[in-house]
Amino acid sequence: MKRTLAVILSVVMVVSLAACGQSSAPASVAPAASAAPASSAAKQSYNYTWGACSSSSGYYALNVAVSDVINKNVDNVSVTVMETGGGAENLKFIGEGQVQFGQTSVPDIYLASKGIGAFEGTAPNENVRLMLSLLPNVYYFVVSTDSGINSISDLQGKKFSPGNTNSSSERLAYAILGALGVEPDWYYASTSEAVDAMKNRRIDGYMKSASTKAIDSSIADVKTSVDVKILSFTKEEIEKILAAYPYYAFQDVDASIFGQEGTITSMTSFYSYGISKDVPEDVAYNVVKALCENQTYLEDAYAGLKGFDPAEITATNTSGYIHPGVIKYLKEKGYTIKDEQIPPEMK
């Protein structure tokens, strides 16, 4: 009997000890559990989409190189490149929250934010900010030499592609040719479709934005099948356009990059990257820092970038609101930010 009682007491003690161990466990693990959210917040990951352009454009490879730099050099940030119609569509996507970064141009960021110029009739895009302007961007009017087109006015009634649908090029073509009273027989197409149409002689010309220092891959592709020339604007034509759109600019380009003599005068802007204002300041800072510190890698992807300082261009030659994280980086580099570049969230 005593032996049985001893066994029972032993079992009760084991059960009691186990129960005590279970009741005390929460106290020992609670600090670790409560610390987890703070650790997760400190290492928050961001998965973003980058709006690029047509894959047949020379700029597409640059967009891919940019994403490579970010993914390899910015902790906890992953960027996926998406092929799009180009600058104007990317601005729309940033405004809608579909992408967080995107290829575009200045002054298009400014014009889109105000709903004016080529963006007249659209609601002001209050979500977009300028992240970085990399290089001068010229809009080239490319025509076949056997088309009989020798001037901008000769485009009247000719089969002409204004650029990707919803692109900045398309909007710009409508605006500046409209200011001159020139109306081509518009051929709506992507860059790759326009290239094919040029090579098959279904259209007379198309417009393509590109660097001032290197021929765009799409134009080089057309030249493998068709002799082309790049049109220039006359002084009188420029005066008419600037009377309607005083915020646009023109510049001369050495025509030798296209195998022509002399210079080409055409509309210019700055090839730029837009960013959503909702991207955290520290993320924008780290992204632009990585891009500026890895420019050689970007130049290998797009030779037209060589010789330009994106930080300097962004701070001194652009209009529109700059993202706060970018402003932080530019100030660290010693640049003064103009009042009109400071966004409302910093005032």
Automatic annotation (TrEMBL):
Query: This protein is called what?
Result: TAXI family TRAP transporter solute-binding subunit
What single Pfam family name could you report for this chain, choosing any that match?
A: NMT1_3
Signal peptide location: 1-21
Task: Spell out the InterPro entries in the cross-references.
Answer: TRAP_TAXI (IPR011852)
Kindly list the residue ranges recorded as spanning the membrane: none
Q: Which PANTHER family match?
A: SLL1037 PROTEIN (PTHR42941)
Protein keywords: Signal
